[in-house]
Amino acid sequence: MKTSTDSIRSHPSPDCCLCGSKGQALYHGLEDHLFGIPGRWDLAQCSNLECGLIWLDPMPMPEDLVRLYAKYHTHDHPTARDSLSRSLYQRAIDQYLRQNYGYLTGTSRALDKLLAVFLYLHPARRADADARVMHLPAIPGGRLLEIGFGRGETLKRLQDLGWNTVGVDFDPIAVANARAKGLDVHLGDVTSQDFAANMFDAVVSSHVIEHVPNPPALMRECNRVLKPGGKLVVLTPNTNSLGHRIFKTDWRGLEPPRHLHLFSINALRKIAQDAGFVKVQCSSTIRAVGIFLESLVFRRKNQSIRPQGTSRALTEAFHYIEWAACKLDKSAGEELLLSAAKSELAIGQS
Fold it and tell me: Pick from 31, 54, 73: which residue ends a domain?
């Protein structure tokens, strides 16, 4: 066991947790440029080219992980701003979700249908609308589990849209904030909750699996608690993204020491298949262009803490740049989307 300068205990992690292959040194001496956790961290990459998983080596001890989130962004309370443009944008999203996913929300007038058409002209906004419901069609009264709900925004939205929601998060501040919103949430990791087998119609997780010490165990538990035919949706940074290729150690998606494991399309697909999921689909998305832009800020500002947002014009321009890049290379997006299902034959699994 090794202790870093911030007293975060760590342990050697020389082997890939997915395929067992040895790790090869990738990056050395990385620092936390987002929330100021002291110390330097190394990343290894799986030597099996068919896998490509990247992970921290040494790895923080699970008991100390909560200390890495004392100033995390999920503790913020962003203030909603009312404006005509935001109101029209919300009406466009409501209509889009009605047409594409069956959610009976908002109005459905001629103006709303026209607004939804404009949404189709902006691929990144459309991708954002898909992510707001985690790519799930409406199942009124369906049971949904979100693992790592952060601010609770997605969990609350899905509850308002008719899902019977439950959340799990290991961050006590996030749990307290979510309970204050009236959400049914639990503290800890999902494997410690003892949920019944075949309990949920859907399990979702957005930018969480990269924070988990044992991703294979997480995926097996997701499979166990899903009903036969139930759907799993996972979002996570993409190590094969255009941003990572360009920025290397300055890539925002690395986020040491909180991001313990980082996935390529092959690695994320493999972990789902190994857990018993079927109908596994994995691709990159253009939604998380902010990862690319923050990487640009890191490099320009000599990796300063908590970079400020870029201009809206630059953000919009990069949405289209990333959209074009993904047309040429489907693995170029900054974010991965995994969609999978539990086998219909899994009745009686426990």
Answer: 73
Helix (H) or strand (E) holding 84: helix 84-101
- Kindly state whether residue 11 falls inside one of the protein's structural domains: yes
In this structure, what DSSP letter does residue 21 have? P
Over residues 38-87, the pLDDT tens digits come to 889 999 999 999 999 999 999 999 889 888 988 776 656 655 566 888 89
Q: Do 60 and 195 have their domain in common?
A: no
Alpha carbons 10 and 39: distance in angstroms, whole number: 11
Task: For residue range 108-162, list pLDDT tens digits in order.
Answer: 888 999 999 988 888 889 999 999 999 999 999 999 999 999 999 999 999 999 9
Final residue of a structural domain among 73, 92, 116: 73
Own/partner contacts of 162-170, CB < 8 Å, gap of 24 or more, are 162/103, 162/138, 163/139, 163/202, 166/200, 168/193, 170/65, 170/66
The tally of domains found in the chain comes to 2
Name the residue range of residue 289's domain: 140-341
What is the longest distance spanned by two Cα atoms in the chain? 64
